[in-house]
Every structure is written in structure tokens, then in C-alpha cells.
Design goal:
By secondary structure, the protein is of the alpha/beta class. It has one domain: Alpha/Beta hydrolase fold, catalytic domain (Rossmann fold, 3-Layer(aba) Sandwich), CATH 3.40.50.1820. The protein has nine helices and four strands. It has helices at 3-11, 16-39, 52-63, 79-85, 90-96, 102-108, 118-121, 141-153, 175-188; strands at residues 45-50, 67-73, 127-133, 159-163. Strands 1-2-3-4 form a four-stranded parallel beta sheet, sandwiched between helices. α2 (16-39) packs across α3 (52-63). The longest helix is centred in the first third of the chain and has 24 residues, at 16-39.
């Protein structure tokens, strides 16, 4: 069993309400963890997420002012558009496509769309960093570029690393090394 698909399948599904509830729970759990870290005296808080986890990390960063740095790998703004265009989510689209169109899905999942929080992600005390794959067929690069453009319009100057690989090949050398080094540089910056 592919553990990655198993876990993401529990969060992202054709049940639109359950997807919102699952992502919301993940964001709330992340924010609880941040509060616990702050209680223990940690002040320099960063979040990191990859693929679906990057939406969760992005939402945490947008809603929690304690987050100072956010590394979002293989992310985009609209989860609805990612499901609609991505190869790995064809089964989700196929399960409701006859009844729910892309415009409906965008409305339903608007709370999960990182573009809707561009102003919060562009705040001056947050350092966002994106890694995306130019040959990604899961989170197509155009969706990532749209999010980055929205953030720039909102005043952010995000770090960006584009790698000439696919979604899953990001985990292979040399791509994983370059991605790791760029995230390490972000996380090692002091306040």
C-alpha cells in the first residue's frame, strides 16, 4: 500500500464536506501544536508542507501570526483546480463530475484556496518559499504560478525554486537535494 496515497485519500476525497472538515482539522491541529511550542518558549516558528500538506501548511501560515516562515513544496492556490486538472486525482473528479462542475467545486472549496488568503500570506513578518516541479502532472505548474502571481500582487516577495522534474520525482536526487537545500536556507534564517 502506498502510504502517501492512503493518508491523502483520507483527507482529499469526493465527499466535498469531509474534505473541508479534514483539512480544517489538520489546520487546527497544526495551530494547537504551534501554541504548545510557544508555551514551551519557542518563538521562531516555521511550517513546511509537501503536496496536499502544503495546502495545510499554507493555511496554517495564513491564519497563525506566530508562523514566520512557510516552505510550500508542490503547492498551488486552488485545491479545486488541482483536483480538476491533476492526474492523481482523476478518480475524485470522475466521482462527482456529472453533478459538480469546476465552478461549483471552486465555490465549495473556497475556504481551502490559498489564493483567497494572499493578503495574509503576504504579511511582512512571513517569509514564504515555494518549490514546484515544472513537469508536474499532479499540481500543474500553471496553478503554482497563479498562486505566486497572486502573492506578488498582494506585496509578497516569495522565494521560488522551479525544478525540472515531476511531482513524484521531486523525491529523487538531484531534485530532492536542491529542494532540501533551498528549504534549509529558508529555515536557517534568523528573525
Amino acid at each position: 500500500m502506498n502510504l502517501h496515497r492512503f493518508r491523502s485519500g483520507q483527507v482529499l476525497s469526493s465527499n466535498l464536506g469531509r474534505t473541508i472538515q479534514s483539512v480544517r482539522k489538520a489546520v487546527l491541529d497544526g495551530r494547537k501544536l504551534i501554541r504548545a511550542l510557544k508555551t514551551e518558549g519557542y518563538q521562531d516558528i516555521s511550517v513546511l508542507g509537501m503536496s496536499l500538506g502544503s495546502w495545510v501548511a499554507g493555511l496554517i501560515a495564513a491564519h497563525d501570526p506566530a508562523v514566520r516562515r512557510a516552505a510550500l513544496l508542490l503547492s498551488a492556490g486552488s485545491l479545486a483546480d488541482m483536483v480538476w486538472t491533476g492526474r492523481a486525482t482523476r478518480h475524485i473528479r470522475a466521482s462527482f463530475e456529472a453533478d459538480v462542475g469546476l465552478a461549483d467545486l471552486r465555490r465549495a472549496w473556497a475556504p481551502l484556496n490559498l489564493e483567497n488568503y494572499a493578503d495574509k500570506l503576504a504579511r511582512t513578518d512571513l517569509d514564504p518559499h515555494f518549490v514546484f516541479a515544472t513537469r508536474d502532472t499532479v499540481v500543474i505548474p500553471e496553478l503554482s504560478r497563479q498562486l505566486i502571481a497572486k502573492l506578488k500582487t498582494a506585496g509578497a516577495a516569495p522565494g521560488i525554486l522551479e525544478l525540472n522534474c515531476g511531482h513524484y520525482s521531486l523525491s529523487l536526487p538531484p531534485y530532492v537535494i536542491r529542494a532540501g537545500l533551498s528549504v534549509s536556507r529558508l529555515l536557517s534564517r534568523s528573525e
